[in-house]
Amino acid sequence: MSSTLRRLAISRQGLNPSLRPDDGLIGAQRAIEHLGYVQIDTLSVVERAHHHVLWSRVPGYEPDHLNALVREQKVFEYWFHAASYLPMRDYRFALRRMSAIRRGESRYFKTLDSPLMREILARVRGEGPLKARDFERRAERRDTTWGSRPVRRALDTLFMMGELMICRREGMEKVYDLAERVLPEGLDLSVPTLEEYAAYLFETTRRAHGVFSWKQLLHLQKGRALREAMRVIVDAQLADGAIEEVVLADGSSVYVDCEALESAAQPEPTVKVLSPFDNVLIHRDRLKSLFGFEYRLESYVAASKREYGYFCLPVLWGDTFVARIDTKAHRAEGRLEVLSLHLEGVAFDRERFFGALNEGLRRFAQFNGCLMLDAGVVDEVCGR
Question: Which domain of life is it from (predicted)?
Fold first, then answer.
């Protein structure tokens, strides 16, 4: 049963290449709509997480696709459990957080009507899309309050309130515009009820994962009322036979989408070098219980305490995590360096895997803009 659940989880995440996903721009849009969000991260040891997650799923994905989808009003940037790209169709579900911030209910965003914020809005309204540096340059010319930290804090607050939106990025630099000029006409702007919001969280999780835990459903969500609303939904789904509860080998329980289970496909034995922020990895307890894979990102760990490397990437082979590989893109040299490779203690066809790994790393190097692959460590581990 556990192997079937792993196959289901991989298939629902769009990591099974035999399912023939859409490619290019439309593939990126549909991937974000299916996953519900793609997390944005600034670390650039290799290509950034939001591009990496989509490249792992979408043939022909290019980094400029995200700006194109924002421009075409198909996706938008906001907060899920972290900064993310989200489907535009789900915009109304972000309104609950925006409304709470406007009401002063967030301890992180308390100054909601400062002269600086009003002037930022006036400038964007009059001048069009602007970046933080556009305000900071003004501070250099005049003795005003337009310093870097106040400006960025004000921009973040206006963004989280929903007054400003990000209309594009230039590299990682955000370009802000008024929300009314970024949102498409006819978009549903009604604030969802608590029950609607709970149903949105449930459906997003079920659709994207197929196998999911109670903790996943409420990941970083707070409030007793929301938990109670979610319990009503789960109990109803169990009673209808839409989902079933399954106890895993370690004693933890998960919910399984019964309809999706019937069509779970055996993944092709293809190597996937995944981002540490990949959607399939983000719920660490479920990852360990379902896949037997215990993972943490060691970028935030002191160098002396790292086991696997600063930015060690999980390696998926079929429906099993079989290795961790630490890589670094030396973009100026056009070289992807493999710093270390650690195999997991699981049974798999290693000879076949190493051939596929080398091919996967060549594709990964190209994705990172590197023509050279420095993978001597791989040859050492496989005994070549």
Answer: Bacteria
